[in-house]
Design goal:
Elements lengths: L1 H30 L4 H26 L4
């Protein structure tokens, strides 16, 4: 009986370690330098900057530059 409990506890520990490792790898892929999130955020900020510049030019020059 003790042997089965010990095996189950060891299995749960290994599963927990694998899960934590997978989560860390996913965070590194998304948040790391050159990661997917960084590229998406950079593109979003660039698009927003362009839109704001175009709106400012329309106000300043009365139309499309």
């Amino acid at each position: 009986m003790v042997n089965k409990t010990r095996k189950k506890k060891g299995q749960s520990t290994i599963e927990y370690i694998l899960l934590v490792t997978a989560v860390i790898i996913i965070f590194l892929l998304f948040l790391g330098r050159g990661g997917i999130f960084q590229h998406a955020l950079g593109n979003t900020l660039l698009t927003t900057q362009d839109a704001m510049q175009n709106a400012a030019n329309k106000l300043r020059f009365g139309g499309n530059p």
